[in-house]
Write a structure and sequence with these properties.
alpha/beta; single chain; 7-stranded mixed beta sheet; 18 strands; 6-stranded mixed beta sheet; 615 residues; 20 helices; globular
C-alpha cells in the first residue's frame, strides 16, 4: 500500500515538476545548506509527500540537494527515494550513477582501504568496457570474479559480494541476504547501486564521495526517463542513441578552438575527464617506467575537486604520491615548477603536473615563456641519466579559448594535456560535460586517457553532446563579450572602492588572449587583530553578495559556476569550490563571474549603494 502511494505521488510530482529540475546544472546556493546537503532535500520532500502536496510552487521551494547537478539533483534523489520506498530501506542506500563501472569501483576502493575481500558476481557476460586486469593493475583493487546462472548458485564468501546485472526495469523486487551490493546496469542511462542491510551503512558516505569526485550522478534527463519507467512498471528503452553527428561536431569544434591536431575526448564532467587523465597517465607510467615512483604535482589551493581527487588516487596506490605546487599570492608558479621538477629528478620519479591557468581564485597568469623553459629544461638523476620529462596537465577552464597546444604555440613542444569543464563556457552552463585534448607529443598518452574514460564508462551522454554541439560554435564570441563586461565592471569598482584589492588579468595579458570573465577581490577590512580583520572581511563578503542578490534577483545569483549565458554569479570560493582543501590554504574572498548578457549598469548602481553603506 505504501509502495502504491509513493508511486502515485511520484507520478503527480513528475507532472508538476519545476522546469529547473531538468535544465539547471548549478543549484541556487541561497537555498543550499552545505551541512545538510545530502539529506535536507528529501526531508522536505517527504513532508510534501505526507501532506500529498505536489504543487509546482511547493516543489520549486524545496532546498538545494547538492551544490552541483553532477553530484545529485531533485530527479535523481526522487528516483533513489522511490526505489527505497519500494524495498522498505533508507533512501541513502540507493545511489544513482551515470556510469556503470564506477559504483563497483567505489565499493572496491573502500574495501582496499579496509583490507576486505570483494567478490563480483555477474549474471551473463561482463560489460565489454569492464577490464578486470586494468582495474587490478592500474587502480590497485583486489577482487574475485564469479559468473553464475542464478544467485542460488553462489558459494559462501568471507567478504563483500557485489551482484552486477543488466536490467530492463528500475528497482528490484526483493533483496537477498547473501548479496551486499546490487549494481543494476541500464546501458546508456547509467546504473543504480543498492546497499543491502546495516552491514553496508558504513560504505554510504564513501560511495557518495566517489560519485562526487570520479563520475556524476545519473543526469536529470536520464533520471526522468528512469522515473517514468519506474512509475509505470514498464521496461526501459535501452536502445543506444545516435550521437555520431553531434559528437563529430563537438570534436571538430574542440580541435578548432584549441588548435590541437589530435582527437579530443569528452567526459560526463570536468572531474570525469580529469580522472581519465590521471588513471591514463598512471597506466602509461607503469608501462613506460616500471618500478619508478609517480608524483602528481598539485597546487594546494586549487579547485577542491582537483585537489581531493588527486589525493584520493594517491591514497590507493603506494607508488603514487602528491607533491604540493604553491602558485598563488606570494608564490610564483614558474619558480615552484622549476624547484619541484629538480626535486623529482633527484628521486628519478615520473612528474605529472596539474595546474590552472589562470589560477583560481586569484586569476594569475605566469610568464608563459618562463613556464615553458622550466618544463622543458633537461635534468639529470643522481646516477647521471636523463630525468623523465614532465607531463603538464593544464586546467584552462577559465580561458578555454587560449591557444596553448597547436603547432608553434607556447606549449607545443612540452607534453601537455589540456582540459576544461564543459559546464562553464563550452555549454554556457547547460550541461556538466568536460573535455580534454593534447598536443602533438601526447598521442600515446591520449590513447590511455581514452581507454580509462571508456573503462570508467564516463563518456559524455547523448544529451551532453547535443548541447555542446549547439553551444561550442559561439563560445569564443561569448567569452569576448563576457570579458568586456567584466573589464568594465572591474574598472568601475576600482574607481568606486580603490581600497579593494582586485584579482583580474592585466590589460597586457588580455591583449595576449587571456580574457576571463571572472575576478576576485579582497574587500577593505578593519579590526585591531588579524582575527578581527578576517571576521569583518568575511561578513562584508556576504553583505555584498546578498545585496546583489536581493536587489537584482533575476540576474545576480549565489552560485559557484562560471561561463553562464546570462546574469552574474557570486560566491566565496573557500566555502564551495575550495571546500576540500586544507583550511590554511583557503581564500575567503569574493569571486564574481559575469556573462555576455546582463544589466551592467544596474550592477554598478547596486555596488555604489554597497560602497555608501560601508563608508
Amino acid at each position: 500500500m505504501k509502495e502504491n502511494k509513493s508511486l502515485e505521488y511520484i507520478k503527480q510530482v513528475l507532472q508538476h515538476q519545476p522546469s529547473d529540475w531538468l535544465g539547471l546544472t548549478t543549484h541556487r546556493l541561497d537555498v543550499y545548506n552545505e551541512e545538510f546537503a545530502k539529506t535536507e532535500f528529501l526531508e522536505k520532500f517527504e513532508h510534501l509527500y505526507t501532506s500529498n502536496n505536489f504543487k509546482r510552487e511547493a516543489l520549486a521551494e524545496l532546498p538545494t540537494a547538492y551544490d552541483y547537478i553532477r553530484l545529485g539533483h531533485p530527479l535523481s534523489c526522487i528516483l533513489e527515494w522511490g526505489i527505497a520506498q519500494q524495498l522498505g530501506i533508507a533512501a541513502n542506500h540507493v545511489i544513482a550513477f551515470q556510469s556503470q563501472t564506477v559504483p563497483v569501483l567505489a565499493v572496491l576502493r573502500t574495501n582496499l582501504l579496509k583490507g576486505k575481500n570483494t567478490r563480483i558476481v555477474h549474471q551473463g557476460n561482463l560489460p565489454d568496457f569492464f577490464d578486470a586486469d586494468k582495474i587490478r593493475e592500474v587502480y590497485g583493487y583486489h577482487f574475485e570474479l564469479q559468473q553464475v546462472g542464478s544467485t542460488s548458485d553462489m558459494d559462501a564468501f568471507d567478504g563483500t559480494t557485489i551482484l552486477l546485472s543488466p536490467k530492463e526495469k528500475m528497482g528490484v523486487s526483493h533483496l537477498e541476504n547473501n548479496i551486499d551490493f546490487y549494481v543494476n546496469l541500464y546501458g546508456h542511462l547509467g546504473s543504480i547501486l543498492i546497499a543491502n542491510g546495516k552491514k553496508t551503512s558504513g560504505y554510504i558516505s564513501d560511495i557518495q564521495h566517489v560519485r562526487r569526485r570520479e563520475t556524476v550522478a545519473m543526469t536529470p534527463s536520464n533520471s526522468l526517463l528512469a522515473l517514468e519507467s519506474f512509475v509505470q512498471d514498464a521496461p526501459l528503452d535501452l536502445t543506444e542513441p545516435d550521437i555520431e553527428n553531434d559528437k563529430t561536431s563537438v570534436l571538430n569544434s574542440i580541435n578548432e578552438i584549441t588548435g590541437s591536431p589530435i582527437q579530443p575526448y569528452v567526459g560526463s564532467s570536468g572531474l570525469s575527464i580529469q580522472y581519465a587523465i590521471m588513471m591514463g597517465l598512471i597506466d602509461s607510467a607503469l608501462e613506460q617506467h616500471p618500478g619508478k615512483p609517480i608524483k602528481f604535482v598539485v597546487p594546494p589551493n586549487c579547485y577542491g575537486g582537483t585537489n581531493d581527487q588527486a589525493r584520493r588516487v594517491a591514497a590507493c596506490l603506494d607508488h603514487v604520491e602528491i607533491v604540493d605546487l604553491p602558485v598563488d599570492g606570494d608564490n610564483d608558479m614558474v619558480k615552484s615548477v622549476d624547484r619541484v621538477l629538480d626535486q623529482i629528478a633527484q628521486q628519478d620519479a615520473v612528474p605529472l603536473i596539474i595546474a590552472e591557468i589562470p589560477t583560481n581564485p586569484r586569476v594569475e597568469v605566469p610568464v608563459l615563456e618562463d613556464l615553458r623553459n622550466a618544463l622543458s629544461r633537461k635534468r639529470t638523476t643522481p646516477n647521471g641519466t636523463t630525468a623523465i620529462d614532465p607531463v603538464f596537465i593544464l586546467d584552462q577552464t577559465f580561458c578555454p579559448n587560449y591557444l596553448f597546444l597547436g603547432d608553434g604555440k607556447i606549449l607545443s613542444e612540452v607534453r601537455t594535456i589540456s582540459y576544461a569543464s564543459g559546464s562553464k563556457f563550452p555549454s554556457g552552463g547547460r550541461c556538466t560535460a568536460g573535455y580534454c585534448v593534447g598536443n602533438g607529443k601526447t598521442q600515446d598518452l591520449m590513447d590511455k586517457v581514452a581507454l580509462h574514460l571508456e573503462l570508467c564508462d564516463n563518456e559524455a551522454t547523448a544529451q551532453q553532446y547535443e548541447i555542446l554541439a549547439q553551444q561550442l560554435p559561439s563560445m569564443n564570441e561569448r567569452i569576448q563579450l563576457a570579458y568586456e563586461n567584466t573589464r568594465d565592471f572591474v574598472d568601475f569598482i576600482q574607481q568606486e572602492l580603490p581600497e579593494a584589492k582586485i584579482n583580474f588579468v592585466s590589460e597586457e595579458l588580455a591583449q595576449e588572449g587571456f580574457t576571463p570573465s571572472v575576478f576576485s577581490m579582497d574587500l577593505p577590512t578593519k579590526g585591531s587583530t588579524p582575527e578581527e580583520r578576517e571576521t569583518y572581511k568575511r561578513a562584508l563578503n556576504l553583505k555584498l553578495i546578498h545585496l546583489m542578490i536581493d536587489e537584482i534577483p533575476l540576474e545576480s545569483k549565489f552560485c559557484v559556476s562560471y561561463g553562464q549565458l546570462k546574469g552574474c554569479y557570486w560566491t566565496v570560493p573557500a566555502t564551495s569550490t575550495q571546500g576540500t582543501t586544507k583550511e590554511g590554504d583557503k581564500d575567503y574572498i569574493v569571486r564574481a563571474s559575469l556573462s555576455p548578457d546582463l544589466d551592467l549598469e544596474r550592477h554598478k548602481e547596486v555596488f555604489r549603494e554597497f560602497v555608501k553603506e560601508i563608508k
